Amino acid sequence: MTMPSRARRAPAAPSRPAARLRRAPSDDGAAAVEFALVVPLLLALAFGIIDFGILFGQNLSLNNAARDAGRFAVVRQIDGSPGRTCHAVLKRARESSVAIALNPTDVGVTVSRNGTTICSIPAGTALPATANSTALQKLPCAGSVGGTDDQLRVAATYSGRLVVPLWPGSSFSLTGNGYFKCEYS
Fold first, then answer.
1. What percent of the chain is predicted at pLDDT more than 90?
2. I want to staple 73 with a disulfide (CB 3.0 to 4.6 A). Which of 89, 111, 116, 173 is the partner?
3. What is the spatial order of strands in the sheet that 116-121 belongs to?
């Protein structure tokens, strides 16, 4: 008597965990090495973008502060009182320079007319509470004549530093300027 032949079944496909165990062990190490090489570059790029954005914002703030102070200096007051003093213009420039990581006391301000400096305050120097000197009591546009090219310039300067220093000694000189015509004395 013959025995019925048994059909042989094909071996079952390996399950997923078994397939993972058969991978070459060097794949995991290669991924870790690639990660270790790429992450510092991505972090430097991200922090570089952040630092550039902060410096750009500081520069915009200096430009706006200089323009605001310049306009403040040349506009005649409605009540007929004399024009604004250098002290008021310097104070206005410092108060207007507000941005991330920018201390207004560290902003240097220079007011000049036709290239001649009328008054200034260096960066890091506190502005006196009142116009206690002759230079601070001057009127920037005093003696100007309508129709002439008397031009008032307010310059605000700041030494910007990187918030996240990517390299040592990284500082940048930032300057904002405001130019207005002296129309009234």
1. 41
2. 89
3. 116-121, 108-113, 151-161, 171-181
Q: How far apart are CA 55 and CA 48, in angstroms?
A: 11
What span, in angstroms and rounded, lies between the C-alpha atoms of 88 and 76?
A: 14
Residues near 169 by beta carbon (within 8 Å), at least 6 away in sequence = none
- Model confidence pLDDT, tens digit, residues 92-113: 999 999 888 889 999 999 999 9
Q: Are 184 and 74 in contact (CB under 8 A)?
A: yes
The Cα 94–Cα 58 span in angstroms is 13
Tell which residue, 133, 136, 173, has the closest CA to residue 157.
173
* Helix count and strand count (H, E) for the chain: 4, 4
**For 104-149, how does the pLDDT look when each residue is reduced to its tens digit (9 = 90+)?**
999 999 999 988 999 999 998 998 888 888 888 888 888 776 666 7
What are 23's two structure tokens? 């991978």
Q: Where are the domains of the chain?
A: 26-181
Distance CA(74)–CA(130), nearest Å, equals 20
The continuous run of DSSP H or E covering 180 comes out as strand 171-181
Claim: this prediction has a pTM higher than 0.90: no
The SS3 call for residue 156 is strand
Q: What is the DSSP letter of 57?
A: H
Number of Cα atoms under 13 Å in the Cβ half of residue 161: 10
